[in-house]
Structure formats: C-alpha cells, structure tokens
Amino acid sequence: MRPSAVSRDHLGVARGGASGAWNGARAVGTALPVRTVAGDDKAVITPLCHIRPGDILVINAFGYDGRAVIGDNLAQRLTVFGAVGAVVDG
pLDDT of 41-90, one tens digit each? Predict the structure, then answer.
C-alpha cells in the first residue's frame, strides 16, 4: 500500500490493521515510539541506546510496504538490548 493510500485520522496517525507475525503473538511492555519514513534506517537504529528491558519499539513508517523498515539483524539487536517486541506500521 502506498503512503497516500493509507487511511489516516485527523492527527495523521495510521489506522489499525496490524496483525501479529504469527497466531497468538503477544507482548506487554512500555512503548518506545519511533516515527520514520521508508529508507531512514538511522531513525530505527538510533533508539537502540534508549531501549530498556521490557520496552516495545513502536515504529510508524506510515504503512509504506515498498521497503523493509526492520529486518532480522535489527530484530536481533532489539532483543539484545532488552526489547520484548516491535510493532511496525510499514
């Protein structure tokens, strides 16, 4: 879905529709929000130094699915830093 096609409310926040990576996926923790655009890897890497054990990285990439926002290597780094999960819109 192109960014222009993503439905948004009056605050510019993407609407729901996210689903777990697998059936029954659950995570509980403190949200660490990140706002980014496709291709801005630094916006996702920089918060690593702010992660505390139990945090969930919440990445708003405005629903863009033309390029990966997070991959295996970054997901592993999140785990090493103590994050319990990630929610990615994009």
Answer: 888 888 888 999 999 999 888 888 888 888 888 889 999 999 998 988 87
Query: What tokens were used for 7?
Result: 């439905």
Tokens representing residue 78 in the block: 């999140």
Question: Which residue, 58, 55, 49, is CA-closest to 30?
Answer: 55
> What's the per-residue H, E or C state across the chain?
CCHHHCCECCCCCECCCCCCCCCCCCCCCEEEEEECCCCCHHHHHHHHHHCCCCEEEEEECCCCCCCCCCCHHHHHHHHHCCCCEEEEEC
A 10 A CB-CB count for 88 gives: 19
- The pTM (predicted TM-score) of the whole model is 0.73
